């Protein structure tokens, strides 16, 4: 069964460093998303991406964040200068169609720890 | 704006007992609702989704949920709990105003199963 994969599973970094979180969405999907879950809190939407551009972003997704689909398979989230409060589990998701009824398939997540 | 509220951050039931996890929604448009499950150290897996086709939705692992517009509820049930059901459960609603339809999650309910 196709699945979304994410690497690494756990990333530890120093405050101020840049990190890139990688995702491989399901191969025929067209819509891509990043969400995050701070420990003990709810899952929050960060950004959606379609046709090589951002469709929507939340207020969390400030200038320190960027997304890219550098090739036909990978979808990355870059945090330019990490802060302590960026420590969270980051989930990538993908869906095949637009619209509120389509299922988003989530990856296993990358746990980011900022020291 | 769409939102969901999950009643009870922690629910504990005995093995074989009924599981009932509560979710109420708020939506300005007909809602599209989901239940996701997160097993320890894993990603989010879709249990079931409501897309207005039928008010009683059957999902995986014996779970089902009933959409009740009069009560603005979408509670998740399972007739007989199994030890393997221990996980975090998230109710969610699709943001129908968004072209890429981000998902808005509830705060989650941790389900524990007593032997």
Please provide a written account of the structure.
- The complex is a heterodimer of chains A (115) and B (115).
- Chain A is 0% helix and 50% strand.
- Chain A has no helices and 11 strands.
- In chain A, strands 2, 4, 5, 6, 9, 10 and 11 form a 7-stranded mixed beta sheet that branches.
- The mean pLDDT of chain A is 92.
- By secondary structure, chain B is mainly beta.
- Chain B is 0% helix and 54% strand.
- Chain B has strands at residues 3-7, 10-14, 19-26, 33-38, 44-50, 56-58, 64-68, 73-78, 87-94, 103-105, 109-114.
- In chain B, the strands form 2 sheets. In chain B, strands 2, 4, 5, 9, 10 and 11 form a 6-stranded mixed beta sheet that branches. A 5-stranded antiparallel beta sheet of chain B has the order 1-3-8-7-6, with no helix packed on it.
- In chain B, β6 (56-58) and β7 (64-68) form a beta hairpin.
- The A-B interface holds A 4, 6, 31, 33, 35, 41-45, 48-50, 55-56, 58, 91, 93, 98-109 and B 32, 36, 42-46, 49, 51, 90, 94-96, 98-108.
Topology, element by element:
The complex is a heterodimer of chains A (115) and B (115).
Chain A: E1 5-7, E2 10-13, E3 19-24, E4 31-37, E5 43-50, E6 53-57, E7 65-68, E8 75-79, E9 88-95, E10 105-106, E11 110-114
Parallel strand pairs in A: 2-11
Antiparallel strand pairs in A: 1-3, 3-8, 4-5, 4-9, 5-6, 7-8, 9-10, 9-11
Chain B: E1 3-7, E2 10-14, E3 19-26, E4 33-38, E5 44-50, E6 56-58, E7 64-68, E8 73-78, E9 87-94, E10 103-105, E11 109-114
Parallel strand pairs in B: 2-11
Antiparallel strand pairs in B: 1-3, 3-8, 4-5, 4-9, 6-7, 7-8, 9-10, 9-11
